[in-house]
Every structure is written in structure tokens, then in C-alpha cells.
Amino acid sequence: MLMESRPLLSAAHCDPIVAGTVLDQDGQPQPTQMPGERPLTLYLDKREIVTLMSLGQKPEALVLGYLRNQRLVENLRDIAAIQVDWEVGAAAITTLSGDAGERCDELLRRRTVSAGCGQGTQFGDQLESLKELPSDGFRVARSTLFALIEQVRTLDTIYKRSGAVHGCVLAAGSRVLHHVEDIGRHNAVDSISGLMWLEHASGADKLFYTTGRLTSEMVIKVVEMGIPVLISRSGTTEMGLDVARRCGVTLIGRARNQRFLVFNDPQRIDFNA
Amino acid sequence: MLMESRPLLSAAHCDPIVAGTVLDQDGQPQPTQMPGERPLTLYLDKREIVTLMSLGQKPEALVLGYLRNQRLVENLRDIAAIQVDWEVGAAAITTLSGDAGERCDELLRRRTVSAGCGQGTQFGDQLESLKELPSDGFRVARSTLFALIEQVRTLDTIYKRSGAVHGCVLAAGSRVLHHVEDIGRHNAVDSISGLMWLEHASGADKLFYTTGRLTSEMVIKVVEMGIPVLISRSGTTEMGLDVARRCGVTLIGRARNQRFLVFNDPQRIDFNA
């Protein structure tokens, strides 16, 4: 048997914030900061598969999470190395077998129907294959939720300095394990998925927080990570709630300032603690 | 020569808001409202091309704008009819030639590389083919911008009642011509693009407002609509600004409460008016 090994990662760095000067409503110049947004084209065994627009905080984790969530690579140990080069905006993924690009090619061809042109969704297929989360008695105290929401509020974020990004947090109780921000909600959640994959971390006793709205695709990704409690500063959509109901996710929205709303499965919350 | 004719549109209706009951942070039940989120699968001459998750306010306009912005149909007069059926979540698009599905099939196959799995972007290709907006002396007074921002603030929105949606507005001066909300920023902007297509409306003397962030893809779509001024309640990303610079879009961010920041091309704004 192969030992579980970690792929070689390039640990590429780029500055997530860009400084500039703008005019205010009186025509007066003001210094400003904005999030960087860089195209990162993924090459899986030399086969170009997608271009993601990213803040670039944790590009290797983003690549891993993308491959995992799109089911383009099955096991972490199949990946030999990920080499990110911001100079050319490319991430080269090398697998041990060296033929993942060809298999992916076939997979992408079959997916064309629903994936479409950058706006589509794998909704139907993914929903059918989702597994319900186990009812294993995992519970979280209201005070823990309040403490986590307060922790998140005090994080030093790109958002506070430049706006225009979304943040995701993986937490154990009120302890922040990972915090990733990115241009799109999906990149942030994919990056955390990639980090969990690297760490062989189970989601079963974790909480997931996002600044973004709880649309169906967001809830699907959290189910795929096996995390039973999803918290958002924002609200949920009807379909987000529908997925949470089918899969048994505790869905918490509008979480801020010692307040929140529980949209689904409140039995995991201890309101008296 | 053919007259410019309008396709037959089904004018399908669905309720954009769903009522429900949630528990608050004290475990007390509270009535709530959330935006509906429905899958709409597009069939172009019976060929399935994409599934969009939508609030469903203006589905025919969304379909038109999607076909236009993805360049799947070249002229409005090529489209004979759009029939949306929410019962089955399908939009059937019939073209006059009847073979757009086959051509689209070929187009989508070639696009697979960058379109990927629902998260990708046509960024490179689209950016190269974008035309710079003309410097035709179109100007807008600061007072008009303030008036428009105030108009938008007082609109009766799904957002105010249920959260979790983005809104887009097409305006002539401070007059709101179209207001569309949807689950994703892209659906809202595509819907307005579809409405403009139907009305043979020029963007050259219009303003575009969005609640969403000004990412590159957002700015690209506004350039494709030929609109010179883009206003957001939120901020811009580096790449959003980069596209605005290349194409000559006046980019206004953080617009609220008699304040805004001009990120690019302030010469179109009359600060003294």
C-alpha cells in the first residue's frame, strides 16, 4: 500500500491588495485599495482545463479544492505536484499516472451540456449523488456560535481594507482553523476544501462560515466537505434551503451582532448553553 | 430585406419570494421570506445548452441576454420564439433556421477548454475582442448620479424583503428604465442585456447600476452593451479596473448616501453641476 503522501506545492505568492488613487464625489483625489484579481489557468498533465479569476491568496489550495469539488481527481495521492506561476498566470498540476488530462478531457466533453459557458451549473447531477450528512449527535452551543461570529468580525481581512471580496472560514467551535478570501464565493470555499484535503481533515465536527449568500451550489459544496453546520452573514435562497433539508445541514443565516436565524435542522443548536 | 421582428415570448411568471418560518437566536419561531431559486435549462432548437439558477423575474429576457452575451445567437431576428415553462424548468428557444443547436454544439465543444465546469471564464477570448467605447462627449452631472442612487435606494426590491439577491438597473439620467434582480449578478445583467436587445436600445447614453462588485466579467458585459458609465454600491477589483481602462468605461464605486468614488475616466462626470 502507498503511504498517503502530500503533493509538492509551489507556495506561490502574490500581493492580494493593489493601491491606487481615485476621485471622490467632489472630484478630490483619494488613496484607495482594491483587491487584486488575477487569471489562473489550470493545466492538468499539460491539458488546459479552466481559467479561474482569483485574489491568489492560496492558489495551490484553490487548485486542489477545484479538482476535488469538480471531481477531476479522485485521490490526493494521485497528485504529484502543483506548480503555480503568477508571472504567466498558470498552475501546472502533475499526476502520478500522468494521464489525468486525457481522462479530464473526456469528462469535460461529456459535461459540456450543462457546464455551458462559465455561468452554468452541474446542479442536477451533483444533487443526485450527494449523501445525507449523518445524524451523529454533533451539537453546537449558541454561545459558541456567538463567539465564532465575533471572532470572524475581528479578523484582519482584505475585505475591510479593499472591499469586493468574499470570505470563508473553517472553524472548530469558535476557533478559526482557516480563513480564505477571494473574488468569488466559490474560489474561497474551494480553497478551504483543498486545505482540508491536504490535512485529511474530517468536516464532521466543524463549522463553516461564509460572508456570501447561501445559494444551492454553496450548500452542495459544504455537504461534499461533510460539514454539518453552515453559517452566513447573509441570507439563503429557496434552493439553498432545499439542499440543506435533503442533506441534513444546519443552516444559519443573517449571523451578526449576537443575532442569527436558523433555517434548517435547529436540533444541532443548544439554545440554552 | 426582413423587418426587424420581435420573437414570440411566453411571458412566464413565477413567484420570486417564498415565505417560511425560521428560529431566531433564542430558538423562537419567526416568519421569514427568501428568494426563490429555480433551475432553468435552455434548449436551443432542442439542444440542451446550459442550466441557469434564477429568481425567474424575467426569464425570457434572461434567456435572450444569455444567448447574446455568450454569442450563441448573432441577431435577434434569428430567434422565432422563447417558451419558458416553470413546471419543468425549461426554456425552449426556436430559431428561424432551426439549426442553431447544432452550431452551438460545435461552439460549446471548442469552448470546453476555458468554460470548464461552471466556474470558468471566457476571459481571454472576450477581452481581446472587446471594442473601446467611443469618446463622444457623453457626460453626466454629479447631481444626476446622486438622484439616480437615491432612486435606486427607494425601489421596492426583492432584496429588501428577502436578501440574498443582486440587483441591476439600466438608467437614462436619473430615470430607471429597467430594474432586474436575480440570484447571481450575471443573470441580472444578462436580463437587462436581453431587454435592451428586444428594444433595439443603444447603451451609448445610458448608465448602468449594480449592487454587486465590479469584477472583470461584470465590466466586460457592460462594455458589450456599449454603456459608458458603470456604477456600483460595492467596490471594484484590479481586473475590473483594468478592463474599464482598456475600454474607456467610467467606473464609479461605493455609491451611496451622496458619496461615491470614481475609479476611471472621471472626465464624463460634471462635478460642478
Structure described in brief:
With 273 residues, chain A is of the alpha/beta class. Helices cover 31% and strands 31% of the residues of chain A. The radius of gyration of chain A is 19 Å and the shape is globular.
CATH fold field value of the largest domain in chain A: Cytidine Deaminase, domain 2
Q: What is the helix tally of chain A?
A: 8
* Multimerization state: homodimer
For the record, what CATH class of the largest domain in chain A applies? Alpha Beta
Mean pLDDT of chain A: 87
Strand content of chain A: 25-35%
Structural category of chain A: alpha/beta
Structural features:
homodimer, 273 residues, alpha/beta, Ubiquitin-like (UB roll), Cytidine Deaminase, domain 2, 2 domains, six-stranded mixed beta sheet, 8 helices, globular
How are the SSEs ordered, and which strands pair?
The structure is a homodimer of 273-residue chains.
Chain A lengths: L7 E2 L7 E8 L4 E7 L2 E7 L2 E8 L4 H11 L9 E7 L4 E6 L4 H16 L7 H7 L10 E2 H12 L4 H5 L3 E7 L2 E8 L2 H14 L8 E4 L5 H9 L4 E4 L5 H10 L2 E7 L2 E6 L4 E2 L3
Parallel strand pairs in A: 1-6, 4-7, 8-15, 11-12, 12-13
Antiparallel strand pairs in A: 2-3, 4-5, 6-7, 9-10, 9-11, 13-14
Helix pairs in contact in A: 1-6, 7-8
Task: Explain what you see.
2 copies of one chain form a homodimer. With 273 residues, chain A is α/β, with parallel strands linked by helices. Chain A folds into 2 domains: 8-128, Ubiquitin-like (UB roll), CATH 3.10.20; 140-270, 3-Layer(aba) Sandwich (Cytidine Deaminase, domain 2), CATH 3.40.140.10. In chain A, 31% of the residues lie in helices and 31% in strands. Chain A has helices at residues 59-69, 100-115, 123-129, 142-153, 158-162, 185-198, 216-224, 238-247, and strands spanning 8-9, 17-24, 29-35, 38-44, 47-54, 79-85, 90-95, 140-141, 166-172, 175-182, 207-210, 229-232, 250-256, 259-264, 269-270. In chain A, the strands form 4 sheets. Chain A has a 6-stranded mixed beta sheet with strand order 10-9-11-12-13-14. In chain A, a hairpin with a 2-residue loop joins strand 4 (38-44) and strand 5. In chain A, helix 1 (59-69) crosses helix 6 and helix 7 runs parallel beside helix 8 (238-247). Chain A is globular, with a radius of gyration of 19 Å. The N and C termini of chain A lie far apart (46 Å). Chains A and B meet through strand 2, strand 3, strand 4, strand 5 and helix 2 of A and strand 2, strand 3, strand 4, strand 5 and helix 2 of B. Strand 2 of chain A pairs antiparallel with strand 14 of chain B, so a sheet runs across the interface.
